[in-house]
From TrEMBL:
Annotated Gene3D superfamilies: L,D-transpeptidase catalytic domain-like
UniProt entry keywords in alphabetical sequence: Cell shape, Cell wall biogenesis/degradation, Peptidoglycan synthesis, Transferase
Pathway: Cell wall biogenesis; peptidoglycan biosynthesis
Family as reported in the entry's similarity comment: Belongs to the YkuD family.
Domain L,D-TPase catalytic residue range list: 31-165
PROSITE patterns per UniProt: LD_TPASE (PS52029)
Superkingdom field: Bacteria
Coiled-coil stretches: none
Organism (species): Novosphingobium indicum
Protein name: L,D-TPase catalytic domain-containing protein
Xref: SUPFAM superfamilies: L,D-transpeptidase catalytic domain-like
The keyword Cell wall biogenesis/degradation is assigned to this record: yes
Amino acid sequence: MRWGARLVPPLLPLMLGAAQPVAPLSLPLIDFVHVDKSDRTLALYAEGQLIHVIDGIQLGGAPVGPKRFEGDQRTPEGLYEIDWSNPNSSYYLSLHISYPNAADVAYAESLGRSAGGMIMIHGQPNALPVGRIPGDWTDGCIAVSNEEIEALWESVPDGTPIEIVG
């Protein structure tokens, strides 16, 4: 065996850097949430200051354009609020978005349709043991990692305004 070959395995962790545990995301009380669907970001504000941005959010299976009808797989656009939370959802924790508002309902009804509802910010499916489902896969909700929804769960109270733009 060559001299260098004996050193590589023991030194490999030093060269690559030992894996360090990542501290959970800790946020102050959030008073405004801004979602940009085209940038795939969820920005969190406290007292008018940008506190944190979550990148790589996942949306409904048809992400372009505002939600108009039940089953269109679009994520709403507009000003809403986080109005309640559900610790027992089919996805890891969930925060309900107050869609549909009166204008959303009126538009859908004018075309003889239902506006839908049950739009949430949530983690990954409870049946998924680890990681994230790739791509856009919700029925119009906003999905984040389980670690991110834990931080949101702790820091975004009911009544927090959320603006969703395309």
